[in-house]
Each structure stands twice: as C-alpha cells, then as structure tokens.
Amino acid sequence: MRNTSALHFIPQFYASRLSFDNVVETAKQHINSFSENKQKKLKDELENGLANLTTKEQLDMYISSYGEIHRQKLQIAYDRIPHKVWSEGSISVVDYGCGQCIAEMVLSDFLKSHYIDNDKISDFTVIEPSKASLTQGLQYLEQFYENSKITAYNVSAGKLTEDYIRPQSDTVIHLFSNVLDIIEFERHNIASILNSDMSHNHILICVSPFYQENGRGALMDDFHAMTCGMRCEYKLEKHTDDWKNAFSCCREFVRRHYPNVDVVEPTKCHEVLNSLTEGRGADRVIEVAGGEDTFELAWHCARPNAIVTIVALYEKEQILPLPWMYGKNLTFKTGGVDACDCHKIMQLISEGKIDTTHLRTHRFPLSRIQEAYDLFANRADGVIKTAIYPD
Q1: What local confidence, expressed as pLDDT, does residue 1 receive?
Q2: Alpha carbon distance 119, 301 (integer Å)
Q3: Residues 205 and 175 sit within 8 Å (Cβ to Cβ)
C-alpha cells in the first residue's frame, strides 16, 4: 500500500511581517508597567475615545483599551467588501481621521488572512488633526506597508479640498472609522468632495460605536444620505444584528440593568446550558432575537418534550428540519401580540411588579404618535421602547 499524505497548497503572496496583535501586545505591556492609579488616570484622559491624544502613554492606552473592539467592527466591514474588488487591479485608501492607523493595520491582517498581496494597496491618503496620533500612525503604516505610497495631512476634515484627495487607483476605499459618530466631524465637506468625483469606484467603510444620546446613532445614516449616486450595500447595527459580539449594546444593556441574568455568547450557549441542566437541555426556550441562526439555536437548546416559544420575526423563511426533531417531540408556539392581556400587564406595571423603566427610552403624547412610530421604524436616537400618554 502506498503511503500518502495530505498536501496543503499555500499561495505565494507578499504580507507584512507585523500584525495588529503585535501592536496591541506592545501597547498593553507598556500600560501594564504603570501603577493602577496611573492606568486609571490615563483611561480617564481618553474621555471614552473622544479626547485629542497628545502623549505616547495616551496613545498606547487607547490601543490597549479599544484596539480589540475596534478590530472586530473593522473585520466585519472588510468582510462585506465584494470579493471581485480584490481581483480587479490596485486599490487606493483614504482615511478621514486615521488616528494611529488602526484601520490600516487591521486591513493588512485581513489581506494576509485572504492571501492577498499587501501591495495591492497602491497608495494611502491619511488625514488626522492630532499631530501625536498621526505621527504614531505613520510609523505603523510605514512598517506594515513598505511598498505603498503614503500621503499624510495634519488637518481636520473641514479643511480638506478636492486637491487633497488624489487616488492613484480606479477603486478607492474610503475609511470612516469611529469619526462619523462625532458631532463636530465635518461630514458635509467630505460628502461634497466625494460627490464631486464620479471618475472612481468609491467604497465607503463606515464603523462607529453605538450612542443613544443626542441622535448620534443616526449620524452615519445622515452621512450616507448626503452622498449622491451611492447606495448602502450592507448595514449591520450593533444593537440589533450583531448582538452576539462583545460590542453589542443589547448584551451590555442586559448586563447593566439586569445583573441577575446570565448573559452568554451564542457559541457558548450549549456549554453553559449543559452545565446547568446536566446535559438535559432547557424546559422552555423563548426565541426573541430573530437572527439568521437563532431559530435553529432555540430548538437545539430545548430538551425532549420541551416547549419552544417563537416571539421573533424573521426576514427570511426558516427551515424546520423534521428528521432531526422527531425524537425531541417538541411543541412550538408562535404568534403576534394579540393584546388580550394588556389590561393585566398594565396593572402589573402600575403595581410595580413589572419594571419597564430601563426599556422606555422615549415618551410621546397621543397627538404625536406618528412621530413615535417614525422614530421606532427608523431605529433613530437609540430608541428601544416608546411610552404614549394622553394629551
């Protein structure tokens, strides 16, 4: 018998010797060398990521504190770029508010993981008003992309003109990483520059934290509405679609307001459930997420003879795999809100037996109920639930 072995073909491609993990680890080592009091002081100086950073300590604290969460959002965005983009010639990158060039470093890791040459990026144009951040970012950028042309501007977005943006390639990836949520960011000027250039294939990558206050959660949509001839191809909202991720508002909301509730990631759901039930599964499962895989997760978690209640609505049809489910003898209950128990629910709320305080983010009089519906339909201003009261 011939001896055989598996052969793995790894294509030849040019990749950076560095990774974003290297940068994060170096930053954490630097920060961990400080006392706890100094670390706390540095974290406070970041002002939740909005401060103008001026020192090396602040820069490393930012990467140490926010680097991983920033990477997760960017990776999701890069994964949404159509595959053909990477096979149709070189690409230019423009970053508006590049900071320390985290988005560019994560892009390098993305290219490496997909066996795409790092020099696929012909040129970078990076804009950043903080001199310290830009200086540090350029050092990283030059190490990650040795063969790409780099042009940098130490200015704010409001001072940019068409002359600043001169991409060398037909396809241009525009990066808006944690800037569109900043109220002071001059998005109108950037939209005007983009709208004036119809000679390139523009791809806009926009990622942002989720803010409920002052309508900041809608600023990204507002920017998209300013761009002419561009359409939104993919949209993920962290407080709804990406509830499984660490930056999910939904999961953090439950942890903050309902500390006695165990919150776990979907990937760990079976492990935790088996530990709690000695492998039997849940007696009752209530599916309210309505995600792509949550229906299957729900009935998988149920024990034999359990009841699975489907409250969620789905954008796509769900498959009921009967051959896999016969042995479990499950009972499914579905249906919308028929309002038959509203009186009892209102009574329990008025008696304080059900507390909905944290869910009610907005209040409207009955005469403005259409505004309330519009707010909820557009998921604007961080709305969760709206209370309606008589005029």
Answers
A1: 44
A2: 46
A3: yes
pTM value surpassing 0.70: no
Contact 154, 131 (CB under 8 A): yes
245-276 pLDDT, tens per residue? 444 556 666 666 677 888 787 778 888 898 88
3-state secondary structure the chain: CCCCCCCCCCCCCCCCCCCHHHHHHHHHHHHHCCCHHHHHHHHHHCCCCCCCCCCHHHHHHHHHHHHHHHHHHHHHHHHCCCHHHHHCCCEEEEEECCCCCHHHHHHHHHHHHCCCCHHHEEEEEEECCCHHHHHHHHHHHHHHCCCCEEEEECCCHHHCCHHHCCCCCCEEEEEEECCCCCCCCCHHHHHHHHHCCCCCEEEEEEECCCCCHHHHHHHHHHHHHHCCCCCCCCCCCCCCCCCCCCCCHHHHHHHHHCCCCCCCCHHHHHHHHHHHHCCCCEEEEEECCCCCCHHHHHHHHEEEEEEEEECCCCCCCCCCCHHHHHHHCCEEEECCCCCCCHHHHHHHHHCCCCCCCCCEEEEEEHHHHHHHHHHHHCCHHHCCEEEEECC
The set of residues, in sequence order, having a beta carbon less than 8 Å from that of 217 and lying 6+ positions away, is: 181, 210, 211, 379, 380, 381, 382
> Sign of torsion, CA 270 276 277 283?
negative
In the numeric block, which tokens belong to residue 299? 């009935």
The residue length of the chain stands at 391
At which residue do the structure tokens 């209530």 appear? Answer: 286
Comparing 42-51, 81-90, 155-164, 186-195, the range with the smallest average pLDDT is 42-51
How far is residue 368's CA from residue 228's CA, in Å, rounded to a whole number?
Answer: 32
What whole-number distance in Å separates Cα of residue 378 and Cα of residue 88? 36
Strand 149-153 and strand 360-365: pairing? unpaired
How many Cβ atoms sit within 10 Å of the Cβ of residue 334? 10
Q: What is the dihedral of CA 224, 228, 234, 237, to 10 degrees?
A: 10
Amino acid in the structure at residue 385: K
Q: Which of 21, 20, 22, 42 is nearest to 31 (CA)?
A: 42
Is 229 in contact with 198 (CB distance < 8 Å)? yes
**Side chain identity, residue 127:** I
